[in-house]
Structure formats: C-alpha cells, structure tokens
Write a structure and sequence with these properties.
By secondary structure, the chain is an alpha/beta fold. The protein has two domains: 155 residues, Quinone Oxidoreductase, Chain A, domain 1 (Alpha-Beta Complex), CATH 3.90.180; 152 residues, 3-Layer(aba) Sandwich (Rossmann fold). It has nine helices and 16 strands. The strands form three sheets. Strands 3, 5, 6, 7, 8, 15 and 16 form a seven-stranded mixed β-sheet that branches. A six-stranded parallel β-sheet has the order 11-10-9-12-13-14, with helices on both faces. Helix 2 packs across helix 3, helix 2 crosses helix 8 and helix 5 packs across helix 6.
Amino acid sequence: MSENRRFLLRRRPDGEPVAEDFELVSEPVPELAEGQFLIRNHYASLDPAMRGWMDDADSYMPPIPLNAPVRASTIGIVEQSRADGFEKGQWVMGLHALEDYSVSQAGGFTQPIDPGLVPNVTNYLSLFGAVGMTAYFGLLDVCDPKEGETVLVTGAAGAVGSIVGQLAKIAGCKVIGIAGGAAKCAKLVDRYGYDVAIDYRGKDEATLAVEIAAAAPDGVDVIFENVGGIILDASLTNLAMKGRVGLCGLISEYNSPTPVGARNLWRLIVKRAKIEGLLVADYVERFAEGTVQMGEWAAAGKLVVDEHVDEGLENAYDAFMRLFAGSNQGKMILKIA
C-alpha cells in the first residue's frame, strides 16, 4: 500500500475526450487526519454525466479541477480508519474518484453497504445505486406514468433506460424504446420487455417521427429523455395531450461543440405538456424506499440488470469512451482492485 495510482484530468476536453486529456500517475498513499478513513476502491461507475463534470461550466456539481483525479462513484473496502462508524474491512459506497485509494470522512456522502444483500457487490453501482434510483424516481415520481399510458424511452438500451422500460411495464404501460442497432433493439424486446423498439441509426428526424407515430398512434404520454438532439425533437412531435417529459440526460450533446438543442418545444404548448429536469441527488433521503421496492421486483423476476465490467485503472479512458460509442453491453463499470 505504498502507491496510489490516480487517473488525472490534465486538460479540458474540446468536444470528444482524447487520451491526452488524461494521465495515469502514481503518488504516495495519503496520510489520514482525525475523522478520516482510507478506502481501497474496488469498482467505479462510469457514467455519461462525468463528461459534463470535465468542463469548466456552471452545473449541479463543480467542475473536476485540472490535475485532480476524475470524479466517480465507487465501492470499496475501508483499509484504515480514524473515523467513528467506519472500521477496517467494511464495504462502503460514495462519490470518490478513479484511483486506487480515496480518503473520505465521517459525515460525508460515503455510506456503508452490505454485499450480502445483493447478488453481486457491483449491483450497488447499477440497480441499487444512482442508476437504479434515477430510473425509479425519475419515472415514477417525475413522470408519474398511469396504467394504460404509452411511455417512450430514448437511450433505451443504456443503464438507466433499460431499467426505466421495465419499470414502465410494471406500471402497466405500453413501452417504446429507441436504441442504436439491431442487436440492442432486439435486446429491448427480448430481455427488457419493451413492446416496440426503434433503431435510430441512419435515420433523420422526420423518419423517426413517423416510426414513433406508427408505434403510438394516440401519441406518447411520457417521454423519458436520455439523448436529446433530433431524437428528442422527433419524440416531442408525438406528444399526447397533457404529456410529460422527464429530462434525464442529453448524451448526444455532451461532446458536441455546437449542440443542436431542442427545436420542437412548441409542441409543449400545443399539447399543454410539461417538461421537468430530474437529478437523482434530490432523492437521496428516499433511496431506502427505492432500493426496497426494486429489490422486491428483482427477487420476483420482474427486473433484470446487465453490467459491463472492464478491468484495470490503466484502461479507464477506453472504458469511459464506450459510453459514447455505444459499445458497452450494460451498466459500465471499471474494476480497479
């Protein structure tokens, strides 16, 4: 435990990140002050939101400082502790960084977890972590789907979208998913229970709008938006009266120097619809509620989750870029330890 490898942000990405924006370095393992504890990170969650944290822009979280390790949610084991309530050997989860060892302190966001309560400890980064809670509260609280309504999910084969579709089916809705490629569209139907899957690849906004209309002739009551751009515009064209849009992400815009933006917002006026941004941090105090209910549905076979685990801190850049290439086959996780 003499070295701490850290994946640093060396410069702000200009559009799509390149390997030269980062550097893997080795530094001494930090000493602990009173009230702190040292975590050996075993797994890190890789999420599209991390791309936004790399920009020097106003957001819901401060930018990652240059020459600091890339911020990420991790799960790991306490190696040393000078903090009450955290003991050596204890599993914990929190917002830390892409590094071997992280320092945290009592009273922060780091919380103990019990690996015995889940099939795999990595489930705390997927179904029972921020991803699962985003899907749960984003759909059921923000979008408020009713039985018999039609729900459209963009980025439907992604970590959040795949869970949202299943939750919408549990709520008794017809569910349409938009994803990239025949394999992912087949997975939406065969594994996640979507009623209809639409492949966006090679299609313009007008074509997508027609395909959505064919799948939802009475309009779409709920749009759970993860992508933005022409996919959002095509979806807005098909809003039903009093429709709701839950704005979870805009991954098509994150690496674009000239974001397209939404051009069909006028449909919200025509259909007297609502759009609301959603952020899982607003629901931290209700996580226990969400995890209990999600656990019951998973145990009953109503929910499945897929995880894509790449190994090695030295592969952090390649693993992160899978999110934008769409080559990950489930929740993107990096194994560090």
